[in-house]
Structure prediction request, 669 residues.
Amino acid sequence: MNRSRLPLWEWALVVSLVLAAWALRVWQPAQVPPGWRDDELINIHALTGEVLSGHPTLYFTGASGHEPLYHTLHAGALPLVGMNPLGGHLLSIACGTLTIPLTYALGRRLLSRSAGLLAATFLTSSFWSLMYSRIALRHAMVLPFALAALYGMWRSSFIGNRLSRIANRLLPVGCGLSLAAALYTYTVARLLPLILLTFGLYLALVHRDRFRRWWRFLLAVLLVAAALTAPLWVAIARGRSEAAAQGIGADARIAELSGPLRELQGGDLGPLIENARTTLGMFHATGDPEWLYNLSGRPVLGPVGAVLFFAGLAFCLCRFRRPEYAFLLIWLAFGISPALITLPPSSLGHTILAQPAVYLLMALPLAELRSRIRDLRPRIRNLESALPLLAIVMVASLVPVAARDLHDYFIAWPARGMVRFLYREDYREAARYLDDHPEVIDVAVGSTLVGPWDRLALENDLRREDLRARLFNPERALLLPAGPAPAVLFIGFPEPDPALAALLEVSPVQTKGRLKLYRFPVDLPLPGPGPTATFANGLELTGLIWPDGEPAPGREATAWLVWRLARTLDLPPVPVVANPPPPGVYAGPRLAVFTHLFAADGTFLVGDDGLWVDPTTLRPGDRFIQIHRFSVLADAPPGPYRLEIGLYDPMTGERWRTAEGVDRVGWGE
Prediction:
């Protein structure tokens, strides 16, 4: 078959698949996924944010180590649409869509026209492909570069000396560029040279004539890729950290996830065997357990898809001496290998390199069936009667696979409670609610305050620019914002402390789903006496009460501290830092309250430090109550006790002083 020219109908079908893939990847971007995940916010605001701020790098040592290409291109894509669910995911959408025609092209060159078209059709509606094409992670971008490199390598080995002189010079450069781009995108791309070298070894052992024509091309590609990626390896070597197992530094993600290998080094083979068993069942039995990227435990393929996949796998094993089938098996083996030795097993993200190979294997039995029937047509007179049956087989294979994947991705997965929680659906709902209520301008929103990610998720989804949102943790604090029409918004999680929430019961409440919005008068009274201390950074301690009684041996006492911001808060810069942070970079808070309980003789009994409001969001006039808890041991000295209160910078340990020049305020003195 002349594979260099495509008939019009084939062009039309490929274009239709690309358009369908694009439509599925841009449809309902604000509904699926239901919000923003930590990793996306880290990528956008910390890593891509570094590039946007004029600090590009060859390797990001934050977030356990990231290659730079995705984040660099993301910095160029974000301004095109803006920071919203579509703009934040646009680069991944484009890469996921581009994977479809490239899979078709490689499948057509490697196997047949039918195999390429069928694999592209399966991939268009694939849950696996949709998942990584619609989130702001680098996984989707590694596939176009990998497919381009593999296509060029296979074409060179297939055509051999029939390439023109110009093509002989340009093709290895193009393949080397694609391979280098993949290596600059995601860690699993480091398996691509191993795939090519293993295939070269296979050719040397089984097809020596072909290997003699191909090895120079392979060497040229690897040399081009090595030269282009040399700066990357230098940057990785410089960024490595002794804290790699805790996710700190270059390539720390590998050390962080390779638990089975560490157990093996200690003589325990069990975790590695269990990982291998689970991963080998990922296509039909035991899928990725992470709700972040899967319906927990859902296998990649349903019954129909699994039958096709294993039929294709068996077909390749039986014809292993054919280079195209050996190539597919080598690709699949290396593609799933990261999940064999890392956690979690059967991870869809760690095995992303195998994705096109899986769908090519699924397409292979159907393509072979069509090929056999076509070859028999000249010899069997009534074979046309079998063609409708072939069409039925094709439809019966394609429709159930697509229906399962589309239902599970667009309906089942985003409806799960754990998915909604992990993707901060409450904050997207809060943004929609606040956008629909322009009369609410000053609002305090509940948050776990684990890093800046809740605040950034809310900012990403808000369309308004006049809203002044503050964040606080309602489990330990209640923030009452200043303003002409202040409000407090509780989301579904975390639940507010009942005693603090009771202070708002006098205010009218509006509910929508799990959201509760309280509006209250500007002069809503708070417990406690007048000002007791004014700190140099602008915070005033205005009250302290013991709602359940003062501390005593053998009981837990609760102190309510009432604060007010008298002027703009004096706070050191708090940049958005990746989690985990780069080696030697502090990523914690810059302001905290300390409360230390002492016995009458000066013995330290217990303390409770923390700040359960986001200080970067506070505005002058804001008031907040914090709950501090003290569990006094039963054998502690009897009271009376003294409580010392103050403010400090957790990074430096330096305390803020009051207007009187002292660094603490005492109660019970």
